[in-house]
Amino acid sequence: MHDHHSETYRLDAVRALEWLKTAESENFDRICRLAAAYFNVPTVLISLVEKDRQWFKARIGFDRDQTPIDQSFCAYTIRENGVLQVEDASRDRRFRFNPLVTARNGIRFYAGAPLRTRSGHAIGSLCIIDKEPKQLNDAERLVLQDLAEMVMAQIEQRQLSDCHDPVSGLPNQRQFFADLNDLGLQPQAEHRVLVLIDALDSHRGHEMTLAVGTGATQSIILEIAQHLKQSLSGISCAYHVNDRQFCFMLQTSMPDYELFVHRLIDRLRAMTRSDSALTSPSPRAGMVIFQHDPLSHADLLRKAMHAVESAHQANTHWALYDIARDCAWRRAFTLARDVDRALASDQMYLVFQPRFSLLDGRRVSAEALLRWNHPELGAVSPAEFIPVMERNGLIQRVTHWVIDQVMSTMAQWQDLDCRVSLNLSPKDFDDQDIGEILRLACQRFDIAPHRLEIEITEGEWIRANPQVIRQLKGLRELGMDVAIDDFGSGYSNFAYLHEIPANVIKLDRSIVTDLPGSPRNQIIARSILQLARDLGYRTVAEGIEDYQCLALVTQYGCHEAQGYFLSRPALPGALAQLHDHLPPRQLVAS
Question: Which CDD domains match (predicted)?
C-alpha cells in the first residue's frame, strides 16, 4: 500500500498540473498517434490520476474524457517503477470484473508507463490498449517508456513557461501562490514577512521608456532580478510577480530583517544608479507580516503593493503595511467607484446656507453645498469626497450635475430672489470652458447670470493655467460675481490678487471661528478686511458660530457673513421658509 504522506504529495503534484485540463497541445496528440501506429493498437491515452478519478489530456480510440478511479488501470501503473503490462485483462484477477473489461469489445490488453515528475511522484501514465490479448517484448517496453518521457518533457516545458517569467527566468506570480499554499503543509506555520520590491515605479518607467526605449528598462529589470537571486541565495526565493515588481519571503525570526531589506534596497539603488536622475530607477520595498491562511493569500500582494505606495509617498526605502492607511485607501476607492450611482440616485443632494448683509441684516445669497449620504458609509464629508473626485478625474462630471441642480432649484423659487454661490474646483477649468457651460445653463433654465456667484480657492494653479484668467474674465463679463474662497490661508497674497478678476473675498473660516479667543487672528482679520475694502472688494466672513465672532467681523467692517450662528444649511424647499433677515438679537449695529 502507498504511504499516506507520499500519496498526499503525489496528489499535490497532480493538482499543480490542473491547467493541463484546458491547455491545448498538438504535441500530446502527436505522441498518441505515434504510439498507436508503432504498437498497432486502436487506443492510446495520456492520463492524470487523481484521488477519485483519472482524466485524459489526450486520447485516441476512447470516447470518455475521464473514468472513476475504481475502473482505472493507470491507478495500478503509477505504483510501478517500470511498465505495467496486462496481457489479457479478462484473466487478470485485478481487472476481470472491471466494466471496461466486461463490456462488449472491452479491454483485453493494457500496457502503461508511469509519468514521473523530477521529484519522483507518479502523476499518471501513457498507456496503450487493445481489444485482443497482446504481449510487449523488451524493446517495445523501452519504446513505451521513452514515449512517456517525451510526455513528461512536454509537461515540464509547459510548467516552466507557465510558472517562470520569460525575461528574468525567475518564478512568477503563479508559482509564488503555489509555494505560498505549500506553507500550509509545514507542521508549524510561523509568522513571515512578504517583501515586495518595486524596481521601477510606473511614472518613472514611462519616462525612461520615452527617453531611452524599452530595451534599457528591461535591462534594468533583468539586472535587478539577477542581483536579487544572488542576494537571496540560501535565504529565500525571489519571484518576478509582475513586469516591474519582485517579491520574496523572510521569517520574522530572522535577526534585523528590516535592516536586511534596507541594505538590499541600498545595493539595488547603487547598482542601477546612472548619471541621470531620470534614468535612475530608485527601487523601494513594501513589507507585510503574515501567517499562513489560504483565505488571505489573494490579498497579500495587494497589501504589499499598498506598503510600496506608502514608501513612494513618504520617499523612504521601505514601508510596513499599515491597515489604517489601507482602509482609508479602499474607502476612497469605494467613493470614487460609487460617484455615478450616487448622482443617479438621491444619495447626493444639495443644501443651501444663507448669507446675510451685516449692514441691514438682509439675506443676500445662499451657498450651494454638496452632501453625500452613502448607503454603506453613511454621511461622507465634502472634505473627504471632493479630493477623491479631483484625484480620479470625476469632479467635472459632479460640477455639471451641481450646476443643473442649482439652476433647476432657482427656477422653482418663484418668490425668492436670492443669489446662489457655486464652488468650482481647479480641475473645472481644464479642457473645457466653464464660463460657456454656465452661460448655456443660465439660458436653458432662464436664470439671470447676475444671480450667480462663483467661488474659487486662490492658489498657484490660477497662474499656472492661462485659460483660468480668461474664463474668470468671461464670467465677470456675464455679470457673475467671482469670489476668492478661504482667503487668509495657503497662497493668499494681496500682491498678486489684482491679477485675478474677482470682486468678492471670503475670509477663511480658520481665522474667523477662533476670532474671539485669538488676538493674532483678530489682527489678521482686521488687516485683511480693511485692505480688501479699500481695494474695492466685497468681503464675507464664513464660519460665524457665536455672537462675539459676529460682533468682531461687523466691527472690522465686513460686508456679509454666514455660519451656524446665523443659519444652518437648508434643503432647497425649506430655504424659502427661513427668515430673510437676521433676528434683532443677532444684528449688530455697525
Answer: EAL
Decide: 220 and 243 in contact? Cβ < 8 Å. Answer: no
Residue 19, pLDDT above cutoff 50: no
The set of cell numbers assigned to 107 is 479491454
Strands 560-562 and 348-357: antiparallel
pLDDT score, position 561? 95
Identity of residue 490: G
Cell numbers 527617453 correspond to 211
Averaged pLDDT of the chain: 87
270 Ramachandran zone, left/alpha/beta (phi>0; psi -120 to 50): alpha
Place of cell 504522506: 5
* DSSP percent split of the chain into helix, strand, coil, nearest 5: 45, 20, 30
pLDDT mean over 97-121? 91
pLDDT reading at 446 higher than 90: yes
- For 518, which DSSP code? -
Q: What is the DSSP letter of 73?
A: S
- Quick check: helix, strand or coil at residue 246? strand
CA distance 31 to 35: 6
Q: Which residues pair with 456 in a beta bridge?
A: 484
- What is the rounded radius of gyration, in angstroms, for the C-alpha atoms of the chain? 37
Q: Is 145 exposed, middle or buried (0-12, 13-18, 19+ CB in 10 A)?
A: middle
Question: Would you state the cell numbers that stand for residue 569, as one nine-digit string?
Answer: 444649511
pLDDT in tens, 459-479: 878 888 888 999 999 999 999
Give the rounded distance of the alpha carbon of 265 from its chain centre. Answer: 24
| CA-CA-CA-CA torsion sign (20, 24, 30, 32) | positive
**Residue found under cell 517484448:** 137
Question: CB neighbours of 263 closer than 8 A, spacing ≥ 6?
Answer: none
Inter-residue contact 84 to 111 (CB < 8 Å): yes
Helix (H, G, I), strand (E, B) or coil at 171: strand
The three-point CA angle 581-586-587 to 5° equals 65
| Domains of the chain from N-terminus onward | 4-163 (3.30.450.40), 173-321 (3.30.70.270), 331-575 (3.20.20.450)
The set of cell numbers assigned to 168 is 528574468
